[in-house]
Amino acid sequence: MNIAIIPARGGSKRIPRKNIKNFCGQPLIAYSIKAAQESELFDKIIVSTDDEEIAKIAGSFGAQILERPKELADDFTPTIPVIAHAIENCGIELTDIKAACCIYATAPFVQARFIQEAYEKLVKNKSLYSFSATTFPFPIQRAIRVNDGKIAMFYPEHFNTRSQDLEEAYHDAGQFYWGTPEAWCEGKAIFAEHSTITLLPRHLVQDIDTLEDWDRAELMYKALHNENPN
C-alpha cells in the first residue's frame, strides 16, 4: 500500500491561515489533495493537522484527517517527525506500507505526473527517498555576501570562470518527498546518496513563505493556465 501525507498545521505566521487561504479560486491545500488523487497511487490520502477548520476543508476535498499532537505542531517541528507520526498512526501496519509520500499543502504547482515519475524512481533505484528538485537560475559559485556593507564572493576563485563552465546546482522544489516507511520512521536524511530526484522545470516551482511569494505564485499560476493576470 502507498499513502500520501499532507502536513498542514494551523499556525502560519507570515501568511495567516495560509494552508486554506483562497488561491486562484480554491483553498491552497486543495491543489495537493487533487494531485495526489489524480496520481492514482495512493490507498490513503491523509492530512495531518492540529486545526479543525483545515480538517473540515481538507475532508471536503476527500482527504482523511489525522489529528496532530501539539508537540508536533509548533514553529520548529521539522517535517520528518510529522510524517513518521502519521505513518505510525494511520491505521495500517508498517509492514503493509510500501511507500509514503509527503506532499506539502503549499504546492499549487504540484502535478500528478511528477509524483508518478518520482515513485517509479524510488522503486526502480531502491532508494530510501525520491523528491522534487529544480535547478538554480544563476550559478551558485558566483553568489555574493554582504556583511556590514562589505561585499565578498562566496567562491572568489570563480570570479573569472565562465558560467557555462560551472557545475549545475539543484535545490529542493518543496513539493513532495517519497520515502520508505522505514526511512521516515528512522529519521534518515532526505538529501543524501540514498535518494533520487525528479527534476521539475523552474516555472513550476515557487516557495510561498511571504505575501510577495503569494502574489508571484498567483501570477505564475494564471500565466500557466492562460488566465488574465490582472
* CATH architecture verdict: Alpha-Beta Complex
Distance between the termini: 44 Å
Radius of gyration, CA atoms, in whole angstroms = 19 Å
Average pLDDT, rounded to a whole number, is 95
Percent helix range: 25-40%
Molecular shape: globular
Number of helices: 6
Total individual domains: 1
At the fourth level of CATH, the homologous superfamily is Spore Coat Polysaccharide Biosynthesis Protein SpsA, Chain A
CATH class: Alpha Beta
CATH topology: Spore Coat Polysaccharide Biosynthesis Protein SpsA, Chain A
Q: Could you walk me through the main structural features you see in this protein, from its secondary elements to its overall organization?
A:
The termini are far apart. The longest helix is centred in the middle third of the chain and has 14 residues, at 112-125. This protein has helices at residues 28-39, 52-60, 79-88, 112-125, 181-185, 211-224; strands at residues 2-7, 22-23, 26-27, 44-49, 64-67, 99-103, 129-135, 144-147, 150-153, 170-179, 195-199. It is built from 6 helices and 11 strands. The protein has one domain (2-134, 170-224): Spore Coat Polysaccharide Biosynthesis Protein SpsA, Chain A, CATH 3.90.550. Helix 1 crosses helix 4 (112-125). The strands form 3 sheets. It has a 7-stranded mixed β-sheet with strand order 5-4-1-6-10-7-11, sandwiched between helices. A two-stranded antiparallel ribbon has the order 2-3. Strands 8-9 form a two-stranded antiparallel ribbon. The radius of gyration is 19 Å and the shape is globular. With 230 residues, the protein is an alpha/beta fold.
